[in-house]
């Protein structure tokens, strides 16, 4: 394992858990979580803290970015907008939070530069976010260039997206191989006590576990 320090953006969800497990085998961990007024904010934060303990991260930081909720424009942050049960390929769904990942990367870069991290790991999955413009490889290529231009000359931070090209079922298979603790994660867009099993995120998770041929540990006893 390298002695490099990596800032890992961790929402508490399955993808970021897998990305954290991937990073844990390569780097020292500094785990970052951002509250942005999403419907399941409290549950995601709870899961994040459990993952920090599980992976024994050297550093952790929780930041509020509630301006994203104030700006609105997403069914994840605006309670007047319904969360859709399905998403239409090729169309940007209402669950897209406008330019969210750029905001998250900016926060992560600021922290990474401050603590001397050289890697920034995010569990973005292009196929898991149909239509999301900030989940495309080209977006992260541009973000890497922006970081290079906008930080000190001696700062060297590279964004890594280890899951970007994977299907959801392959994310699960990788996570199982890395012993990712999926029982500590949360994917539902709207439930905080139990998964709603109706939103697009719950459906993707259920379908992927079924395709992988393994039981979702979060659903044990249900």
User: According to CATH, what is the class?
Assistant: Alpha Beta
Shape: globular
What is the SS-derived class?
alpha/beta
Number of discrete helical segments: 7
CATH homologous superfamily classification: HUPs
> Mind telling me which CATH architecture this is?
3-Layer(aba) Sandwich
Q: Report the span from N to C terminus.
A: 39 Å
Would you list the SSEs in sequence order as H and E? EHEHEHHEHEHH
Question: What does this molecule look like?
Answer:
This protein has 222 residues and is of the alpha/beta class. It is built from 7 helices and 5 strands. The chain has helices spanning 14-24, 41-55, 67-71, 100-115, 137-150, 168-177, 200-212; strands spanning 5-9, 28-35, 59-64, 119-122, 158-160. The protein has a 5-stranded parallel sheet, sandwiched between helices. Helix 1 crosses helix 6 and helix 6 (168-177) packs across helix 7 (200-212). The longest helix is centred in the middle third of the chain and has 16 residues, at 100-115. It is globular. The mean pLDDT is 95.
């Amino acid at each position: 394992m390298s002695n490099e320090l990596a800032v890992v953006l961790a929402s508490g969800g399955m993808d970021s858990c897998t990305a954290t497990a991937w990073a844990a085998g390569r780097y020292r961990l500094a785990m970052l979580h951002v509250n942005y007024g999403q419907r399941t904010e409290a549950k995601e934060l709870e899961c994040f803290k459990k993952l920090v303990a599980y992976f024994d991260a050297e550093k952790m930081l929780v930041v509020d970015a509630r301006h994203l909720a104030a700006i609105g424009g997403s069914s994840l942050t605006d309670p007047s907008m319904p969360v859709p049960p399905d998403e239409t390929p090729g169309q940007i769904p209402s669950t897209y939070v406008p330019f969210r990942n750029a905001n998250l990367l900016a926060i992560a870069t600021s922290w990474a530069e401050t603590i001397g991290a050289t890697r920034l790991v995010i569990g973005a999955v292009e196929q898991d976010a149909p239509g999301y413009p900030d989940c495309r490889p080209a977006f992260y290529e541009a973000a890497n260039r922006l970081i290079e231009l906008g930080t000190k000359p001696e700062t060297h931070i590279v964004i890594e997206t280890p899951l970007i090209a994977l299907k959801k079922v392959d994310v699960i298979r990788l996570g199982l191989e890395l012993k990712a603790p999926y029982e500590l994660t949360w994917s539902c867009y709207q439930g905080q006590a139990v998964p709603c099993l109706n939103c697009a995120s719950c459906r993707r998770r259920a379908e992927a576990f079924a395709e992988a041929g393994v039981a979702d540990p979060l659903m044990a006893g249900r």
